[in-house]
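INTERNAL AUDIT FORM
Audit reference: QA-55
Scope: verify that the stored structure record matches its stored sequence.
Auditor: D.O.
Record contents follow.
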Amino acid sequence: MQLYEKQEYGAALECCRKKLLPLAPRHSGVLGLAGVLCFMLKDYSASERYLNQAIAAGAGAEVHTNLGLTLVELHRPADAEQSYRRAVALDPNQAQAWNNLGNILHSSRHEARKQEALNCYRQAIAARPSYATAYSNLGFALENIKDYAQAEKNYRLALSYDPRNLGTLINLAELLDKAKQTEQALICYRQAAEFYPQNAKVLGNALGLRRNSADWDAQARPRVEDLLAVLPSDQNSGLQPLTLLALPEVDAQMQLLAAQRFAKARWATQLAQPALVRLPAPPINGRLRIGYISADFRNHPVTHLITDVIAAHDRGQFEVFLYSYGPLTDDKEQLALRDLADHFIVINHMDDSEAAGRIRDDNIAVLIDLTGYTTHARPGINALRPAPVIASWIGYVGTMGEPRMADYIIGDAIVTPPETAGNFSEALALMPECFQPNRALSALLPAPSRADEGLPENATVLCSFNQTFKLNPLLWDDWCRILQAVPEAVLWLAPASRPPVERNLRNETARRGVDPERLVFAQRKNLDEHHARLALADLALDTFPYNSGATASDTLRAGVPLITRAGETFCSRMAASLLHAMDLPELVTTSRDGYVELAVALARDTARRKALRDKLARILPGSPVFNPRRLTRQLEALCRAMYAQAQAGRRDSITLSGQDW
């Protein structure tokens, strides 16, 4: 025991095997100790063997708890659940078994199991009233059923017993952020960062919150530099890769590394399971079945982009399945998709294994993931490999970092040039014109007056309706340089997403020597009204490195020229893809100075802007960017090419040849 207490687990196991077990080969205590030592040494198979022997020799509840811990590490949660149930049946005071059983139950999508999880956490607390982790887990379970007051109460109880509990600090910060209590959330993250300065998830979450608030104070922590310092060594903190896409300091290779680590840390259990569908793929009998899986089949930019594609599929050749695990809103966008799809399947209530089983049983040939690592994501379904081909498209504009999550990322020669293939875990599947789908052109509502929108009548109106997290200090430097060079210009921005945003952006503008009153924050409008008012702008400024997507095509649809800067990452080349497909390459720049110079030149030159708007007006009616039927034919050809590779047992990059679509 002295060796164990000194954490000399290897020496302790050697002593156990050579001295104790020969003397008492069936002693439950000795076998149980050997099992624990193997667990500490990460030899989980040996740990399971010894613990099962200890149980056969009559060991009690604690050994069942330890076996549960081991089975979780072996990615066998169902077996672990049975071990925890045996432990609490033998001894209702097994607090850790109650807590861990709660974790397994709470991970389910079934309401009855989630309710049972609440009881498990309460039993764990009853058995150990100072059990901080159980309070935290209870808080998280309550938060998920929207009992926010009780969730916060339990998080704070957890911290009263363990002020350094990392999971609790993160959970409380996220709850406070959800309640728009930005400063309080930052306090939690900063406390966590003080205790765990090497934890990339803590630093990334805190930095993400600051960026969502346009809080760029270089003296405040954490800073981008703090995150960059720990990224190379971060292995399993669970840092969300989406956090990195909008940071100019993070290159494509670091995005890939972060995605690889995130996949392994978060979905290890699913990745450890045998694939449900193996290659080579079988021949297609009848129509090829395409499945789209998403959290966003509702009033959401992804649905705005994809709806006309679903409608345009050739039903003689393709059968379309939509798998929805997002909010059930029953809004007009969701109802439209229900009508347009051949099959609309709600899988919210299904666990990953059930959802994957349903997709397999539906004989989906190509599964297209429209969510990736964004909000409500469930890539664990992909990890179980329910289809011969899985492709990532438009929802997440970066690599998933794990080949089992997606075989292909659908791009094009501009947004994902062949020479960038090494930045992706996926093979490249290149559309011949533009990766981004869009709704067909239709008449816009009449534009309001500039006065209606709070815009000066005679100003040059520069606009950017991107989300706040896409803004950053370097980009703001460039935008302020443009405003300084064009004194008659104003910058028209999206409505502030949270209270500090407008104040912070005005302060940052004043700090750069520009009158903050030259910022005009738009009012919230419905989508049709928003599209109509865009025509009031003279020029749109794209964000970098996370470009506009749907925001860019909305701007172009309204007849407003958009200036972009193309970088090396997928997300920094999206607008360039649209502009090249629109035959407007002259609006694509590749450097900060080039971007500023072009914006200034166009903002100063009314005639040149008019010529661009006239060109855009001529291009729009025949543009492939707003021809969803044409894009759907291309996508169908790409799906056939991806499936043909699966039939051959391959997943090489694909480039569709040019033809008359």
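Auditor finding: record pair retrieved intact. The chain is about 50% helix and 10% strand.
Action required: none
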